[in-house]
Amino acid sequence: MATVLIAVLALWMLVVGVCGYAASVRGFVIALLAGLTANTVWLMVGLGASPVNPSFVIAQLAACLYAVCAFASGWLIGRMVQQFRAGRVE
Fold first, then answer.
1. Which of 15, 17, 21, 86 has CA 20 to 30 A from 29's CA?
2. Which of 26, 38, 41 has the alpha carbon at shortest distance from 66?
3. Which domain holds residue 45?
4. 35 lies in a domain?
């Protein structure tokens, strides 16, 4: 089960990173909401956590920070690739 959760997290972060690479804020918001929804379902159904539980809130904040870091990394890589292509001698 842990392998599936890690794979889903990695896939989600890849999607958010691609949104950053493409500088798509709309895609980022959609992916963020989808990830937070999936995390909420997992926490409430899989673990039986309550939304008022402090651990629940921390888990949601951590997911938001994962998303922001993945988006920023994708955006930075996209900018580096763009500058590399612009400065290439032909």
1. 86
2. 38
3. 30-75
4. yes
Tell me if 36 is assigned to some domain: yes
Kindly state whether residue 55 falls inside one of the protein's structural domains: yes
Write the burial class of residue 23 (CB in 10 Å: 0-12 exposed, 13-18 middle, 19+ buried). middle
pLDDT tens, residue by residue, 9-51: 999 999 999 999 999 999 999 999 999 999 999 999 989 999 9
**Structural domain contains residue 19:** no
Interatomic CA distance for residues 6 and 17, integer angstroms: 16
Q: In which region does residue 48 sit, left (phi positive, over 0), alpha (psi from -120 to 50) or beta (all else)?
A: left
pTM of the model: 0.87
Q: What is the mean pLDDT of the chain?
A: 93
* CA 13 to centroid of chain Cα atoms: 4
Comparing CA positions, the residue from 51, 54, 52, 32 lying closest to residue 42 is 51
The total domain count for the chain is: 1
